[in-house]
Structure formats: structure tokens, C-alpha cells
Give the backbone structure.
Amino acid sequence: MPGKSWVWTGKLSMAIGTHEIIGVVLCGGMSTRMGRDKGLIVENGQTWAARAAAVLINHVDRIVFSVRREQMGNYSQIFAGAEFVTDSIAAVGPLGGLMSVHAQFPDAHLFLLACDMTSVCDREILPLLSASGDVVAYRHKEIFEPLCAFYSAAACDEIRRRVGANLDLAPGLQKLLHELRVTALEPAHYENLQSRNTVNQ
């Protein structure tokens, strides 16, 4: 089964203080340029969503898949027994995924990883979790990478406060990171942080 390798195997807790760390696999994008659900693309016998979960699993306490409501039918079949959070916050894009997961797990730290960042591996994740800060993200030429990044529970709450009720006017995560206090790291392999819009990319 394409999603089998994500299954949690009881790793030691990586929680910082009393907060657990949730690895959030972002799968809710519309995949307009790809033309099909990116998270369910199978490559080397594994879906992109499963690969992202497998990369995160040794570094977090639990895995949650962030999806749109209409994706649940397919994902619940492929990832039987997995935890899902559907986008309940009307904000556009990954911000909606982050806020929806935070709304369900308000005391947890979140580590976001987009399912289409298929070159991310331990060497990208470990520096982010080893650094201190409420938000830890890579920054290259003044551009943050918000979709492979650590967000503390306090940072998520601050994002929720800043967005407020004006969801239609909510800024993207890129703009929010420029407004927040972020521990910015220069990526050693910037090319590994690229999102894929074609299978052959």
C-alpha cells in the first residue's frame, strides 16, 4: 500500500518542555499546475504524502495530515488509521492548514512540511529542531521557506491573533514570517527546499 510506510512505531517523545511536537504534512493545496492531488502521487512505490510523513516521523511525537474536506475519502482509504485535520479555517493556502491544526491542538508545537517538497530529508529537519526560537525557518536571499519550518504553540497563537476575524484579508505565511520574530537559518542545500509542480521536476 502506498501509504504504509508512514505508520507511527512508538518513537521516544521529542516534546519540547511539556509541549508535544506534531508533524503536519500539508496536502490541502489545489495542485492546479500539477493537475492532480500531489499528496497521492506515487513515486518509487510511495506517495508524496507518505514520504513526507516518513521523513518527519523520527523527529516528532505524532503525524497529522492536513487536507481539504473533499480529499478525506481518498486519504482515509490510503492512510488507514492516520490522523487528519480538515481545513476548518477559511484562510487561503497553507495558513489555513496551520490555523486548523492549531485550533484542534492549541498546546502543541507544529512542524510543517509540504507534501511536494520531496527532497527534504533529515539534514533539513534537524537544524530547524535544534535551533531555539518560537519560529525557526530557512531564509534564502530574504525569502523565508514557511512550509518546512517549526512553529511553537505560542507562535501559532500569535498568528491566530494577527489574522483575527479578517480571514479574507489574511496575509500569507511569507508576509507573517517577515513580521514575526523568526530564527532564520541559511539552508545548506537550498535546492532541497523546492516544491515540485511536475512529476519530472
